[in-house]
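S1.2 Input.
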Amino acid sequence: MNRRVAVTGVGVICGIGQNLDLFRDNLMAGNSGIRPISSLDLGDIRFRNGAEVESYNPLQYFGPRETDFMDRFAQFAVIAAREAIQQAAIEWNEERRENTAIVTGSCVGGQSSEDAAFQDIYNLKRNRVHPLTIPRIMANAGASHISMEFGITGPAYTVSTACSSATHAIGQAFQMVRSGAAELAIAGGSEAPFSFGILKAWEAMRVVSQDTCRPFSKDRSGMILGEGAAMLVLEPLESAMARGATILGEVVGFGMSSDASHITQPSSEGAARAMRNAIRDAALNPEQVGYINAHGTGTLANDIAETKAIKLVFGKYSERLPVSSTKSVHGHALGAAGALEAAATILALRDGMLPPTANFREADPECALDLIIGEARPAKAEFALSNSFAFGGLNAVLAFRSR
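S1.3 Output.
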């Protein structure tokens, strides 16, 4: 028999806060973390803004030796996991360590370390690179360092499905806990894409905004890159209640689909299938969903396709189903995006307050939804969806329940 799965811990570090409380406050106030990129020389890159972790100093979190072993994205993963585990008040023993799973998502892994190695080889003509380049680059480094820090010896792995990575990771961890394959799981995603090479690659795609991210607004001009991590602690609801844990919410459903159509252009039908699958997995009627945290990238194609997908799934009810995109404040953190948005959705249900879409200026008739704009909206929703739709047509949707 499937078990109910509780969320007992959430940890966050991103452009709007280096812990969950700061993240929550800025999220609900619609305070954007999008600002001029300061961590590197942008040279001739056409866009200048991003949602960086402001004034980040790894030595506040790690010793010099640890810092040398870990790329920025892996550091973020461990920082978020520490907060989530502390909030969940996990007491470790050998049996619990053996029965805990770690599932993380990352799209590009240790991009800064890879970029530095290529600079050494191709630009500076050096005949060797940093000896820790490979362990810093590997996308599973976040999961591995979480495992080592807490002595977790259960299954640990990383999912890389572009912008759906973290949502796939959380969904698979949810399935493991629900089925009994794991007694506890730490799941989420981390990303640190601010290196010159990858920014040039995004520039070439011509989907990054020159100013800010305005999801669903008629004058939107593209996405804004973000960085950071979010991690969730998942465990059986019955076990969480028995040990007196504070339950932040429940994961109740997970849906996936593949567009099988285009490598970058989104498909409304594919996105709709993933939402339907999550709703079906949660044994819900569509009208029970009280909020959607949209993928909402702020690109012309995505926002129209996602609007059509929501209408395909919810029909007439879509006119009064609250929707917002929190990428408008924390940016698009690629493989970590779904984890940040899962955290935002859990907070929305816990606090009875739905976060706004920031930077919105003008209604788009092709994005005619019940958009939360301007300020957070009080609402006691019981169920919510968090959408992730990735390049490659890989879609993942989580369904959450309030407590």
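S1.4 Remarks. The two ends are 22 Å apart (CA to CA).
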